[in-house]
Batch of 2 targets.
Target 1
Amino acid sequence: MLNGYAGTILEVDLTRGAVRKEPLPEKLAREWIGGRGFVAKTLWDRVPAGADPLGPDNIVVVAAGPLTGAPSLGAGRVHFGAKSPATGGYGDANMGGHFGPELKQAGYDMIVVTGRSDEPKYLFIDDDRVELRDASHLWGLGTMKAEETLKKELGEEFQVATIGPAGEKLVNYACVSHDFGRQAGRTGIGAVLGSKKLKAFAVRGTKTIPLADPAAVWAKGQEMYRAVFDNPGMAQWTPEGTAGVVNWANEVGAFPTRNFSSSYFTEHEEINGHALIEKLKPISKGCQGCPTPCGKYSTAKSRLGEAPVEGPEYETVALLGGNLGLDHIEEVAYLNHVIDDLGLDTISTGAVVGFAMECYQKGLLSKEEVGRELAFGDAEAALWLIRKIAAREGIGDLLAHGVKKAGEEFGPIAQAIAPHVKGLELSGYEFRNAPAMMLAYATCDIGAHHNRAWAITYDVQVGQDKVEGKAQKVIELQHVRPIFDHLGVCRLQWVEIGFDYNHYSALLKPVVGRDYTWDDLMAVSEKVWNLNRCFNVREIPGFGRSWDYPPARTWQDPVPDGPAKGKFIPRERVETLLDDYYRLRGWSADGLPTRRKLEALGLGEVAAALADRLPG
Amino acid sequence: MKIGLREDRCSGCLVCQTACSLSLFKELNPKKSAIVIEPRFPTPGNYAVHACDQCGECATACPVGCIEKGDDGVYRIDAESCTGCLVCVEACPQKVMRVHSSREVPIKCTLCGDCIRYCPRSAIYDVDGDIAEKRWY
C-alpha cells in the first residue's frame, strides 16, 4: 500500500468501451509526486508523437495528488491534461471543488481516458463499481443542467465534472466544469473530451485514504489551520475573493482593457471586488479544506438576464469587464454564467471577444463578416458573439479556434494585436509595464497563462522598468507555483496570505511516510518544466524561441493612458529577457533544453528520444 | 460545550467532516463523520448544516438500550451491545447518525469539539463559548 495515495489507476478505453484497473506504480508516485507530475509524465509516455489533439490518439489524464483530500488548506485540487487543441502542445488545467478528494476516496489517483466512443458516454464511478454509461440524455445540455441531472439521477453525494455544448462542438477553449462553478479552464480539455464523446465523470467514494501516520497528519493539519485563523491576510482576501485584485491591477497599470490595448480601465470601481459584494450579495463557496473561499456565489441579475453564477473571479472580471469595456458587474456576472454554462473558458472567451471587437473597430472585420455591429462596452454584442462561438455559427466558427488562427485570417495588423502566446489567449495581466510578467507569459508551458509565475508582484516590488534579475525570479516562481498542482492543494494561501510553503512538505511526510524537503519538491518541479518543454519540441513543428514571443503590440504600441502611459517593452529588451531565461535554464539560445541538462535532471530517455532535435 | 450552527456562514469546505473522521476514527474519510453538509445548488445556492444536538431521540428509539447519556450530557453508543439494527438512524431528527459500509455500528457525535475548533468560519460554533470563535470575514 502506498500511503497518501489511493493506489489505483483507472484506464478507460472509449473505443472498446472497456475499463481496466491498474496498480499505481510506486516509482511514478515517488518520482513524479502526483497531479501535474502524473499528467506530464503520462502525456509524454502515452500520447503518440504527432497525434491529432481532437483525434482518438490523444488522451485525457485526470490526476489527484498525495495531499488531495488531506486535512490541509485547499486540499480540493485535481489536475487535468491532454495534448492541447489550442496550442498543439502540452495542455493542462487545474480544478478545485470536491472532485479530486471524491476520486481518491473511491480508490483512484488517476484516470487515463483513451480512444473515442461513437455514442455519448459518461464515466460512472461508485467505489469499486466503474461503468461507461449512456449519456445521450446529457448531450447538448449546459454544464449546470448536466450536473444537476446527474446528481438527481445518482444522488447528491456524487461529484460531477462535465463538459458543455462548447466542448461537444470542439471549441478550442472549451473547459471542464464542476460543482456549479469550478472549472479546469484552460487549454481546451473540454474539446478533447468532446471529441471522445465523453460528456462527464460522476464519482462517489467512501473509502479511507491511507496515511502513513494519521495522528501526525492530523496534528500537522491542526497546526496549519491554527496558523491561518489569526493571519491578518484573511481579512484582506476572504471578503472579496480574487476580485479584490481589480483595484491593484489598475493602480499598477496592468488591467486588461479593450483587448489589452490599455492597462487601465477608468470605470474599474464599477466592477471591482467591492462592487461584486455590494451588488451581487454573494455567499462564499469554498473548495475542500479552504479557509479563504474565493468562490462567490449569487444570482446575476441584469438586463441581459437572470441566472445563478459562481464568480466572477478576478480573471473573469478582467477579461469580460475591462477587456470588453463593460462597466456593470451584473452584466459581467451574467456573461460569466453564460460562458460557464456553455462550457467555455472565461479567460480565452473574453480575449477572443475583445479581439473581435478591436478588429471590428479597426475595420479589419466588417459588419457583413460578423453579422452585426461590435463595439467595446456593448454587452449584448458580447453575449451574441459568445453564443455564436459555442454553436460555431457564422464568424463564431472561426473564432472558436482562438485569436491566433483568427489573427492569421484577418491579417498582419490583427496578428500584432492578437493576445496570445503559442495559441493560448492571454489571461488577466497587461504587461507592457511588467517585464517579468511578460517573460512569465512568454515561457509558460501551456501558452499565455499567469498562474505558473505571477511575476507581476515582483515587477512592482523591485521596479517595473527593470529587466535585470527578472528571468531568475520567473524561473523560481515557475518551480514553486506548479508544485502545488503536483501535491493537490491550492496555492492561494501561500500567494495571498503569505502562508509558509514549508508547511506542505512537512505535511507530506506523515501522509506518504517519506521525507521530502521543499528542495526535493523543487527538483521535481524543474524536471516537469523541462519535460513539458520537450513535449512541445516533440509535438509542435519548428518549436523553439520563435514560439515564445508575445504579441508585437508589446514593442509596437506604447500604453495610451493610465499609470503605465507611454510604457512598452522594446524588442531588444524582450530578446534580453529570453536570452537570460534560456541561459539560466541551461537551454540553448533557441530555447531548446540541452541533452546534458535533461540528463542531469534524470530525463535521459527524453534526451535520447529527441536526440536529433536537441543540442548537446 | 454545545454545538450551534450558522448556516449562512458555511462555504462547504468540509473541514468539519475531515476533522470528525480523524478525531473519531483516526482515519481520513469525511464519509465517516457525524456531520452532514447539504449543498443546495444551483438553487437556492447555499449549504444546509446538520449536526448532533444531543437531543437523545436515538437513545429513546434504541430497542436494546445501548445508547446512554453520560455525565457530560453526551449520548454514546455502547458498540458491544449494539445490534446494528439502525433504528436510531431512522429516529435521528437531524439525520446525522450515519452509517458506513465498513461498520455495523452507526456513527454518532461524541461532542469532541474538533468540528467547532477547525471550522474556518465558525459556521459550527460553541454556544457556551468554551471554544473561541474565529474572526469571520
Note: Chain A has three domains: 8-204, 243-421, 429-498+517-616.
Target 2
Amino acid sequence: MKTINEMKLSFISKSANESFARSAVAAFLLPLDPTVAEIADVKTAVSEAVTNAVVHAYPDTFGTVTIEAKLTDKGHAVIKIRDRGVGIPDIKQAMEPLYTTSTDERAGLGFAVMQSFMDNVKVRSTVGKGTTVTLEKNFIRAAYGQK
Amino acid sequence: MVNITYKNGVVTASLYGEIDHHIAPQIRGDIDAQCERSRPSRLVLDFGKVGFMDSSGIGLVMGRYRMISLLGGKLEVVNVPPNLQKIFVLSGLENLGVMK
C-alpha cells in the first residue's frame, strides 16, 4: 500500500476543540470518497478519542493533543490521537464497556464506540507519559478502485 | 443545542446540531432547570434535528433518565435519526424502555 497523503495536527486539550478535531479529520478523508455512514463513524470515533484526552489525560490542566493521519492508495486510513498526559494504568479495564473514572455523566462507552465504528483500534499508554490511540478504517469505494 | 417547551405536564427538549462532551453540560443544565421548575410527569427528548452525537449524548440520556425518575416522571426518547441509530443500539438504551 502506498501512502497518498499525510497530515499532523496539534491543539490544546480544550473541549471546544473536540468539534474542530473530528471535522478536520473528516475533511482530510474526503479524497477517499467516504460514504455518509463511513464519515459519521470516523467522526464519532475521533470525537471519543479526543474527548478521552481532554477529560482523562490532562485532568487538572491543559496539554497538547496531536492527531496524525495518513491515507493509502487502497482506501485505508490510519488516524493516531496522541497525548502526553497521565496515561492509563490498566488499558484492559479502561476499554471495558461502561467503565468510567469520571463523575461527569460519562457513559463509559468511548472505547466501545471506537471499536464498533472502526475496523481496528489499538491503545498504547505509559503512566506519566501519555497515550496513543490508533484508529484504522477501510473505505469501500476507494478500496474498490472507484476513486 | 436545545429548545425546551412545557405544556400539560410534559417537558419537551428538542435537541439540534451536534452533541458532544463540550456541548452536553449546557444542554443538561437547561433541561434539568426546566424540570426542577415544572416537575413534569414526562420528559421528551427529541433527537430529530441532531446531526452528530458521540457517547456524550448517551450519557446525557442516561443522566436525564435518573433525574426524571428521581422527580417521579418518565423519560421518552423520540425521532432518533438513522445516523444515530448505531450508537443508540450500542448503548443498550432500548433496554430501559425509553425509546419511542
Note: The interface with chain A takes residues 18, 20-22, 24-25, 28, 52-56, 58-60, 62-63, 83, 86-87, 90-91 of chain B (CB under 8 Å).
